[in-house]
Amino acid sequence: MDKPLMQLEQLVIHIPDRAPGSPLSFTVEPGQCWGILGPNGAGKTTLLHTLAGLRPPRSGNVHLEGRSMAALSRREIARRLALVFQHHHDGFPATVLETALIGRHPFLRPWQLETAGDLGRARAALARVDLADLEHREVSTLSGGERQRLAFATALTQDPRLYLLDEPVSHLDLHHQVALLNIVGEKVAAGHAAALSLHDVNLAARHCDHILLLYPDGSACWGPTEDMLLLPVLERLYGQSLVQGEVDGVPVFLPKG
Amino acid sequence: MSRLPLSLALLAAAGLLAMGVSLALGSVPLSAAELWAVFTGDGEPLHRTLVMELRLPRTLAAFATGALLAVAGALMQVLLRNPLADPYVLGISGGAAVGALLSMLAGLATALVSGAAFAGALLSTLLVFGLAHGTGSWSPVRLLLTGVVVAAGWGALISFILAVSPGAELPGMLYWLMGDLSHARNPVMGWGVLVLVLLIAWPLGRHLNVLARGSLQAAALGVSVRPLEWTVYLLAALLTATAVTLAGTVGFVGLIVPHMLRLVLGNDQRIILPAAALAGGILLTLADTLARTVIAPQQLPVGVITAMLGVPVFLYLLHRSR
Question: What is the pTM of this model?
Answer without folding.
Answer: 0.89
